[in-house]
Design a protein that fits this description.
365 residues; mainly beta; 4-stranded antiparallel β-sheet; 26 strands; 11% helix; globular; disordered C terminus
Length: 365
């Protein structure tokens, strides 16, 4: 699969372009002919950007940005994140711009590995790009585009800025995700908020402290403001999953859990918005596991995906295994799963009924 295409621009022949893809390589094309293959990334290549006077940049799921000359040599490798990188571009002044799974847009000094600025958002940043006037626009998983500027005259009103800061601070972050950003997390050893009096050493540095109620909170250091800024609450347990998106069975997932079934460690993939009961049921079917494990597996997924909201998109859900399935309560009243209010799946108005056959599919008559 191809993930990125970058034309070489007016300085080169019009039919030449670069591509990056799932095979972890970058290719230079002249028409339908591959002139050169660039190898170095250890995971899929997500984006490409021209670097005037030098060559081009690439970013990858391996969390690095690589600087290449068109002749084929890799000139520099920048560790730009601990999570997947989704976009790379070049600002008018020569600085590099990246965005990643960890909700940040980062500006890098073009001539060094120094992070000039790290901007945390309320959700994953899927793409970012410079505008002709030097501003930056970022597209997020929350359905919004955020515009950033260094010009005081174009800055948003203080009330809007404060609201944005509150949204970022209110994000609940699973412990396993935070571990990928700061290393092993031992909640019992966390310092109190007094530790925030100690200045950070670099832009975007992370620190976890306990608030007055004992809840772990994640902070990031802002060199420009000289302060620690809260970017989320650490929730859930830290075991049993890998950070960020992972490839499994040829598809990309937000979580890839390790599930121990009678001593055998099996993988359970899961995306935010998925129904944990349906994911657990598919896991049992795919691995030929006894149905008695359904509740145990589903509850493990629910516990380790705090804040997950099941997508409300229309689909026929299995009335026995989905989050909205009917489960008799101890007092005799029917109880529901995630969506609430489901009655008996055979007789009630919420009963499961197959939809009409798709157009073009013959029906029995």
């Amino acid at each position: 699969a191809l993930w990125a295409v970058q034309p070489l621009g007016e300085e080169a022949a019009s039919d030449r372009c670069l591509t990056g893809g799932g095979d972890r390589t970058i290719k230079l094309w002249a028409g339908e002919t591959c002139e050169r293959t660039y190898e170095g990334h250890s995971d899929v290549v997500r984006d490409l950007a021209l670097l005037p006077g030098a060559g081009f940049l690439s970013c990858s799921n391996d969390a690095t940005v690589r600087m290449w000359e068109l002749g084929g040599e890799c000139l520099r490798v920048l560790q730009a994140s601990e999570t997947f990188l989704y976009s790379v571009s070049v600002l008018p002044g020569g600085e590099w711009l990246t965005c990643s799974e960890d909700r940040t847009v980062r500006v890098w000094a073009g001539g060094s590995d120094d992070c000039v600025q790290s901007i945390t958002h309320p959700a994953t940043v899927w793409d970012c790009a410079p505008l002709p006037n030097g501003d930056i626009v970022a597209g997020c998983a929350d359905g919004r585009a955020y515009l950033w500027t260094r010009a005081a005259g174009r800055a948003a009103p203080q009330a809007l800025q404060a609201g944005f800061k509150d949204e970022v601070a209110a994000v609940a972050m699973p412990a396993q995700q935070v571990e990928g950003m700061v290393g092993d997390l031992d909640v019992s050893q966390l310092a109190s908020e007094e530790a925030l009096a100690q200045p950070g050493e670099r832009e975007g540095q992370h620190k976890i402290v306990k608030d007055e109620g004992g809840t772990p909170m994640l902070y990031t250091w802002s060199m420009a403001k000289g302060t620690w800024e809260k970017i989320g609450e650490v929730t859930g347990s830290s075991g049993g999953t890998s950070l960020g998106k992972r490839m499994h069975g040829g598809k990309e997932y937000d979580y890839l859990f390790d599930i121990d079934i009678n001593g055998s460690m099996l993988k359970l993939p899961f995306n935010r918005g998925d129904d944990p009961w349906w994911a657990a049921q598919q896991f049992l079917w795919n691995n030929d596991i006894d149905q008695a494990f359904l509740d145990q597996v589903a509850n493990f997924v629910i516990t380790n995906t705090p804040g997950n909201q099941v997508s409300s998109g229309p689909r026929n859900a299995d009335p026995f295994t989905s989050g909205g399935s009917y489960r008799p309560a101890a007092n005799g009243a029917g109880s529901s799963g995630a969506n609430g209010g489901n009655a008996d799946p055979f007789t009630s108005s919420g009963a499961y009924r197959p939809g009409a056959a798709p157009e073009g599919v013959p029906s029995c008559g």
